[in-house]
Amino acid sequence: MRRWLDLAHRDLVRHSPVLNALNVFPVADSDTGTNLAVTVRAAAEAAGVLETGDVGELLALAGQAALEEARGNSGTLFSVFLTAVGQSLEGQTRMSAESVRVALHAGHVRAWSVLSDPVAGTMLSVLEAAAAVPVPQDVGDGSNQQLKDFLGQVSEAARAAVLATPEQLEILRETGTVDAGALGMLVVLDALARTVGGDDAGDEAALDRLIDDAAARAAGVLAAPHAVHGGVEVMCTVELSPLDAAELRHELSEVGSSVIMSAVSEAGDGYRWRVHVHVERTEEALAVIGARGEAVNLTVTSLSEADG
């Protein structure tokens, strides 16, 4: 799992220029690749210093660490997904195809649940496709070969889901491109399949062809004129009870969009929540959040294309 996160980070860094160029939804701010790479790096660094033989504990703690440092919608959703996968696998020192199938389903459900307005044709569709892959029955049950075959099929299903994204989102039909977050999640899942398959170098031909094609289409997107989007992305951590968190989610949805709230860890009588929202002005979000609790680990990023 440590090698998986390291490989996923390296691959995301390598493909970030293409992912950034493809970033047109929910806001064309050209940072999906960068956000995913930074977030996965946080998970990889945390996993690198954790001493445990429990696969689930390693991934859950790495996911929580990544969530605290998550960047953007894509980074936040990856962190939520990884945490849920880890929690599903807790107590296990090795993985099987069946345990990973259940874990992928848990990650998919958690990622959908933290969004106030989940949208198909995005990273969520890739997670849904991965979670729907059945365990192959033509090899030994619980064997390493079954796990390798299963993850190979997960990667194939994720690739098909990426290619289908232009049919699911109007903006992607207009640009003729695939979704950046969906493609980034494919990079992550493909790295998992290659790592568990026993060779980090792996056969990357199919993924590279897809990304080369996406890069060619992205060049056309960059050449076309775009409207400049305003507003900011606000992310912070706040300690709240589950009831206050539910009310805060509703209140943020009234003043902004792309609201994501996920519990990071227990704290006092409640939890530490990672909050993500897009608003016109920073003050709008901070006023709503501040009425419920103290915002810490705060980051504010411009959503203007002019700021890149």
TrEMBL record:
<dbReference type="InterPro" id="IPR050270">
    <property type="entry name" value="DegV_domain_contain"/>
</dbReference>
<dbReference type="Pfam" id="PF21645">
    <property type="entry name" value="FakA-like_M"/>
</dbReference>
<feature type="domain" description="DhaL">
    <location>
        <begin position="1"/>
        <end position="194"/>
    </location>
</feature>
<dbReference type="GO" id="GO:0006071">
    <property type="term" value="P:glycerol metabolic process"/>
</dbReference>
<protein>
    <submittedName>
        <fullName>DAK2 domain-containing protein</fullName>
    </submittedName>
</protein>
<dbReference type="GO" id="GO:0004371">
    <property type="term" value="F:glycerone kinase activity"/>
</dbReference>
<dbReference type="InterPro" id="IPR004007">
    <property type="entry name" value="DhaL_dom"/>
</dbReference>
<dbReference type="Pfam" id="PF02734">
    <property type="entry name" value="Dak2"/>
</dbReference>
<dbReference type="InterPro" id="IPR048394">
    <property type="entry name" value="FakA-like_M"/>
</dbReference>
<dbReference type="InterPro" id="IPR036117">
    <property type="entry name" value="DhaL_dom_sf"/>
</dbReference>
